[in-house]
Design goal:
This protein is of the alpha/beta class and 283 residues long. It contains ten helices and ten strands. The strands form two sheets. Strands 8-7-6-5-4-3-10-9 form an eight-stranded parallel β-sheet. It is globular and about 40 Å long. The structure holds 9-methylguanine (9MG). 9-methylguanine binds next to strand 7. The site of 9-methylguanine (9MG) has 13 residues, from strand 7.
Length: 283
């Protein structure tokens, strides 16, 4: 399959001639708190603007943690967290993605200006396919074995690369059948979602198999447990390991990397790109 030239995200055409950076904006109780139990949306917006200035092409806004063991939140709570931020960023012409598994949140986010849906359940919730098909949004279909609360208890696969690839291609074909154009679909092996370190490393090493499907590949390894297992570092000291993983993912065919440390990742990618192609940094 030929390398995809772009990802159509609503009215944004994301050119994939160079690797792209998705900056993570979590609107959860442990981030952007105003000192009490509420969020300071202005702080979140300031962080998003900083990430864009640092080189983020997409801002991924999430209101429910999908970390192993994380508690679920209601649709109402999730909407209250993410919609004001999405509206403000879309008004500033940012390419905004929403990280959600809930069709109700997808619809509200699309109405607020989101141009991409990042779904760790690959649109398997009832009504999710229809919500995206009815819009012009892009979608990232991610693989997860199990559910966030329990997914790390005993992940197992016959052949992790083949199992995950087959699942993602199957979901992408279902999405196309539901009316989502091929150039609006990205796939993601879901590092850390029901996977041991050995599974994650096998997937990273074989990312080219995913790129060969013809769908752009999104990879998210930033600050994850596998980086901690390899380096022995706690989560707040995993930046260098995460940048190395992002570079490795791009070298193996990833088109988009989802990261916390945008500036460092963008710099590393620009150096890598200059060495590979002679191209100077730029958007
Ligand atoms: C929400 N989220 C957390 N980790 C992720 C990953 O690796 N990929 C995608 N698409 N979303 C993620």
């Amino acid at each position: 399959m030929p390398h995809p030239t772009h990802l159509q995200c609503g009215s944004h055409r994301l050119d994939l001639a160079r690797p792209r950076v998705m900056g993570i904006l979590n609107i959860t109780p442990d981030s952007f708190a105003d000192g009490g139990r509420h969020f300071d949306h202005e702080l979140a917006l300031t962080h998003a603007r900083r990430m864009q200035a640092d080189g983020a092409d997409i801002i991924d806004v999430g209101g429910e943690s999908t970390r192993p063991g994380a508690a679920a939140v209601s649709e109402r709570t999730e909407i209250a967290r993410v919609i004001p931020v999405i509206e403000a960023l879309a008004a500033e012409k940012f390419l905004v993605s929403v990280d959600t598994m809930k069709p109700g949140v997808m619809r509200a986010a699309i109405a607020a200006g989101a141009a991409m849906i990042n779904d760790v359940r690959a649109l398997q919730a009832r009504g999710a396919l229809e919500a995206v098909a009815a819009s012009g949004c892009a979608v990232c279909l991610m693989h997860m074995q199990g559910k966030p609360r329990t997914m790390q208890s005993d992940p197992n696969y016959l052949d992790v690369v083949r199992d995950v690839r087959d699942f993602l291609v199957g979901r992408a074909l279902i999405a196309e059948g539901a009316g989502i154009a091929r150039d609006r679909i990205a796939i993601d092996p879901g590092f850390g979602f029901g996977k041991t370190m050995a599974h994650n490393l096998a997937l990273l090493r074989s990312l080219r198999v995913f790129a060969q499907t013809g769908y752009p590949v999104l990879a998210g390894l930033s600050r994850k447990a596998t980086i901690g297992e390899i380096t022995g570092r706690p989560v707040e000291e995993r930046m260098a390991g995460s940048v190395a993983a992002a570079l490795n993912a791009v070298a193996h065919g990833a088109a988009i990397v989802r990261v916390h440390d945008v500036r460092e990742t963008a710099d590393a990618l620009n150096v890598w790109l200059a060495v590979e192609t002679g191209a100077k940094a730029g958007k």
